[in-house]
Amino acid sequence: MRILITAAGSRGDIAPYTGLGAELRRAGYDVALATTDGFAPLVAAAGLKFRSLPADTRVRGGVTGRRELMRTAAAFITELGQGFADAMVDGTDLLLLSATTAPLGWHLAEATGIPSLGVYLQPTAPTGDFPPVVTGSRSLGRLANRAGGRFALRMADRVYGQAVAQLRHRLQLPPASPSAMRRRQEQTNWPIMHGFSTALVPRPSDWRSGLQVVGNWWPPHDPSESLPTDLEDFLRAGSRPVLIGFGSMASGDGERLSEIAVRALRRAGLRGILQAGSAGLAADGDDVLTIGDVPHAPLFPRLAAVVHHGGAGTSAAALRAGVPAVTVPVTADQPFWARRLAVLGAATDPIPFRSLTAERLADALNQVVEQHAFTRAAAKAAHHLATENGADQALKAIRQLIDG
């Protein structure tokens, strides 16, 4: 059977699907991952076939305002939709659609008759249990949370309007709005698996039956692969360091963030590792090391804490390692995950990106390193994550769908 996974966004939006795809490939399926060209090496390293989706995600890292984010997202989705159908040119028997690509993939499934399944990294269905992910706000009560969730979906449908119209025209389908298509999927109880842990987001009690929370899909990692020599030497040279990185966020803020990071580390009396990322963090010194792209799995368990932007993947990786965090969310779903970590007790209260100072960061680092409650909460969550097998649950759901 030929399975096509479609995903788009930053590295954190793609890497989990390489883990899911690798597990499906080991189970005997022919798996391809369709995403933007910049992630072709990541897909190939996981042993998966690559299919190209037309869009450039690099401009998204510097976007912070909500209106600017909406405009950028609409342009990105319109570009993505223009060549979305081409990803299926070599044949597909089953579509696995991310939250970003599902509002486009539904129309391909309708045109071709190919069955599809949602594989989401964020909870998008309205619920009274928490506010919508894109708002990142505290809970306003069950009724307001659900109303906010429905409003967030309407705003998302507006982003997809032009892309959906163009795609349906190309597929020779009658016109249908994104909101009408979403309602159709909900009425048919279209199944969605959510690839995050119930430690962070328990399955809401008011979700429909087709929505599952199955656990994380971890990017593949070879246990025999060693860390870079300079990093290994630094880790062995003293006390456990703190990693500071912002992933694909904060492009253009590297100089400011690097200065803040070094001042905060020295104020807190801690050794530190700066992960360059899109921001280009960099610093020199006996107590600070700058690194590039390094897998989370072998590095995080050897840290005292992680300072990060609150991305879903990094949040989960820190919990998996049992390491507490200081979060500095930038945009999109990051405030939501940062708040979930704080509620869990595995992170300090989030520091808004534009409010970040060396003094605030140093104070947060002192809290998270010196107060053992943070480490205990992270270790408890790590034990919970170890009981989950998201890839296995996904495999079972796919087999049920095929059998059905």
Structure at a glance:
The protein has 404 residues and is α/β, with parallel strands linked by helices.
Major sheet characteristics: 7 strands, parallel
What is the share of helical residues? 40-55%
Name of the level-1 CATH class of the largest domain: Alpha Beta
Output the CATH topology of the largest domain.
Rossmann fold
Give unreliable regions as ranges. Answer: 59-64
- CATH A-level architecture of the largest domain: 3-Layer(aba) Sandwich
Number of strands: 12
The fourth-level CATH homologous superfamily of the largest domain is Glycogen Phosphorylase B
Rg on CA atoms, Å: 21 Å
Structural category is alpha/beta
**What is the molecular shape?**
globular
Distance between the termini: 15 Å
**Count the helices. How many?**
14
Mean pLDDT: 91
Number of structural units classed as domains: 2
Question: How large is the share of residues in beta strands?
Answer: 5-15%
Overview of the structural elements:
- Helices cover 44% and strands 13% of the residues.
- It has a seven-stranded parallel sheet, sandwiched between helices. The protein has a five-stranded parallel sheet with strand order 10-9-8-11-12, with helices on both faces.
- The protein is of the alpha/beta class and 404 residues long.
- It has two domains: 231 residues, Glycogen Phosphorylase B (Rossmann fold), CATH 3.40.50; 158 residues, Glycogen Phosphorylase B (Rossmann fold, 3-Layer(aba) Sandwich), CATH 3.40.50.
- Helix 4 packs across helix 5.
- Helix 10 links the parallel strand 11 and strand 12.
- It is built from 14 helices and twelve strands.
